[in-house]
Write a structure and sequence with these properties.
Elements: E1 4-7, H1 13-24, E2 28-33, H2 36-50, E3 54-58, H3 64-71, E4 83-86, H4 102-130, E5 134-138, H5 151-170, E6 177-183, H6 190-194, H7 199-205, H8 214-224, E7 235-238
Parallel strand pairs: 1-2, 1-4, 2-3, 4-5, 5-6, 6-7
Helix pairs in contact: 1-2, 1-8, 3-4, 4-5
Length: 253
Amino acid sequence: MKRTVLITGATSGIGEATAKKYAEASDRLIITGRRKDKLDRLAEQLSSGYGAGVLSLCFDVRDKDQVEKHLGNLPAGWDKVDILVNNAGLAVGLSHIDEGVIDDWDRMIDTNVKGLLYVTRAISPGMVSRNSGHIINIASIAGKEVYENGSVYCASKHAVDALSRAMRIDLLKHGIKVTNIAPGMVETEFSLVRFKGDNEKASAVYSGIEPLTGEDIAEAIFYCTGLPDHVCINDLVITPKAQANATNNVRKN
């Protein structure tokens, strides 16, 4: 039976890989993102390359009114979301708290926390009414620990971790699964965004190490949502073999 899967932040990295993974399984995709050109390109790939049914919605999860407009009024046939992947998120800047850029903080909190809440608020009532559904929240190992220069990003991902645990309790009696996935080092646009387009700094993050890929995380997401109905993975931490946590890794010379 085809499932309807909603993925936020689908235009690159984990979101894009996840969309392709579900398309391969002949599921139907609702994909969202801010960059219309990339969203349109992905929709075409999913449709023509995999034969998947696709609904693409271009908006920013930080904008509550846009979230409500697009997700609060899904067209008939698309309004029963089986799986929600709250993937949209980012890190911006890397500085001590006393030197932090307020706009960077706002972007992280508005996207990673408030955006996740807006989307979940729009979609979860339908799951509750059907007593069925699975919510995947993409957190980070930064939600399990903290590190120098990452205070606000870590705080935002700690919030995702807490929300995942609280959602699980709130939605328990409605038969809805909630899974928190906390990746370590994943080579996507993440570091390029964090360093505001500085390719040299972004590349150095992955130097000498084989990081995770978006496809690796997509496999984990797909696995968690394919288990028997009575099984729920509540929390999953994933790192490359060469990374133990946010600050301990082994790099080849």
